[in-house]
Amino acid sequence: MPNTENQKKNWFASWFDTPYYHILYKDRDYTEAQHFMDNLTQYLNLPENAKILDLACGKGRHSIYLNSLGYDVTGADLSENSIKEASQFANETLHFKVHDMRETCEEKYDAIFNLFTSFGYFEDDADNLTTLKAIHNSLDETGFACIDFMNVDYVIENLVPEEVKSVDGIDFHIKRYVKDNHIYKEIDFEANGEKHHYTEKVQALRLEDFEQMMKEAGIYLLDIFGNYKLQKFYKNQSERLIMIFK
């Protein structure tokens, strides 16, 4: 696989677009994800037919579920392959589009969800603030946004340095480590007679980092939760860092 400068720059643009990404993560717990979306939409008390933007929607599984709850949902993602696949599920109240989360949307939404650690991937730290501002500017006046991020302190404390995951006959060799305030995941595997290597890299953003950025973006942080049941956030014990803002 050619390791062009462009691929190095935006690793997520290439890795998320491969079929192997979806094979590796196909056993994710979607029941838990659905409970989370039930809890979140109830907590926000969204009006019927509310317009929701699912930002970094991947293949649209969560968009489809939110749409089944009666909302008008737009799933947006940078990956053309993912959007192409998601688009087969589109209907009058479920739309999909290729969109860079750093850009403000033309439409305004009642709610914007950025779920399951789909933030902090950019090479340039300034892009995090740009993204927050874009989310802020894409909300209507009474709208709410939710960023569901990992709780960095918990993740680092419980990091599994090395493991092998076997899915669909492929052995994924995974290494995890922390370097330069980023959490890295190196993934090596052989498929179709070829060796593949990908690196996932997420910025180790903590609550105080988000608070600082939100202050700069003129965002009002309303609530913080530590798990998908929307229970209190504890710095060292909570698995997630879920932030609700407007």
From TrEMBL:
Signal peptide: none
Keyword entries, A-Z: Methyltransferase, Transferase
An individual GO BP term: methylation
Entry keyword annotation includes Protein transport: no
Name of a matching Pfam family: Methyltransf_25
InterPro entries listed in its UniProt record: Methyltransf_25 (IPR041698), SAM-dependent_MTases_sf (IPR029063)
GO molecular function: methyltransferase activity
Entry-linked Gene3D superfamilies: S-adenosyl-L-methionine-dependent methyltransferases, Vaccinia Virus protein VP39
Native source species: Flavobacterium haoranii
Xref: SUPFAM superfamilies: S-adenosyl-L-methionine-dependent methyltransferases (SSF53335)
Protein name per UniProt: Methyltransferase domain-containing protein
Domain Methyltransferase, chain residue ranges per copy: 52-143
Superkingdom of source: Bacteria
